[in-house]
């Protein structure tokens, strides 16, 4: 996984947005209902970013998109104080943009997850067909 | 992820076809096993506190938070304290992480897939518990959060090995072999080491 490329860093920063959301109700001293929203969305963002750090599951980063969209509208729907509104919208904007950063995965994963349902499977033609081999013996 | 063709000499020994590294190598697995053991000892400690073996619990940041959470009704929803269940889960993670050799993605797909399945739901439960701490109990618990972070960090590396095994099962099916035999490691596991053309 090392060295870190911008994809790794972007996903770690998405996680950091989530940690901020978890802490912000206490740091900025605001209450429900926006605090509940932050304490639900925070751990989910930490998870989305923390899982997507790994190249093989980088696609999980898109899970941050609907969460980011919610952060942009939640203060208006739930009626939040000014500091919570700014905090939510800043975190939403940052997470929404950062989760779009794919980076340059350095490893190859045999066609990835889509290889499981793509027809024909991408590596089939390159493997020795043992059935045929046995038949010709 | 596109189906990128990889240069054979860039591939690690034992890597699955089309992979640059081997997800079953000890370099990839031992860190997960070590993390799972750390998680195991943290959870065991918290569980023993819940069983009142220890009268105090270490809490550097949140005052009475750990005590509030570990003594809460959420933690005691089941007959066994939740931290002890967590400890059992981490132990299974460590055990299923150790079993099998460097090529277990194709010699023992069953253990790889069980390993992956343990870690997934485990992460979901961890997230739910993290959310419930401040919302329901208005408290935080440092070691509980540490344990949740560990279960989160283990997801990626466990899942990549599972992908290699699932791809192997898919190839076996395409070759007309029994997926069940391949899953149990009873099939012909002599898949060519270097199966990707360099053309």
Q: Please, could you describe this protein's structure?
A:
The complex is a heterodimer of chains A (137) and B (199). The radius of gyration of chain A is 21 Å and the shape is elongated. Chain A is mostly helical and 137 residues long. Chain A has helices spanning 6-27, 34-52, 64-78, 82-98, 130-136. With 199 residues, chain B is mostly helical. In chain B, helix 5 (109-136) packs antiparallel against helix 6 (142-153). Mean pLDDT of chain B is 84; it is low at 1-9 and 194-199. The chains are: A mainly alpha (137), B mainly alpha (199). Chains A and B meet through helix 2 of A and helix 5, helix 6 and helix 7 of B.
What's this model, at a glance?
Chain A has helices at residues 6-27, 34-52, 64-78, 82-98, 130-136. Chain A has 137 residues and is mainly alpha-helical.
Order of helices and strands of chain A: HHHHH
Shape of chain B: elongated
Which stretches of chain A of 5+ consecutive residues score pLDDT under 50? 125-137
State the end-to-end CA separation of chain A: 44 Å
The percent of residues in helical segments of chain B reads 55-70%
**Sequence of secondary-structure elements of chain B:** HHHHHHHH
Strand content of chain A: under 5%
Strand fraction of chain B equals under 5%
The biggest beta sheet of chain B is recorded as: none
Q: How would you state the average pLDDT of chain A, rounded?
A: 85
Question: Largest chain-chain contact?
Answer: A-B, 42 and 44 residues
Structural class of chain B: mainly alpha
Radius of gyration of chain A: 21 Å
Distance between the termini of chain B: 20 Å
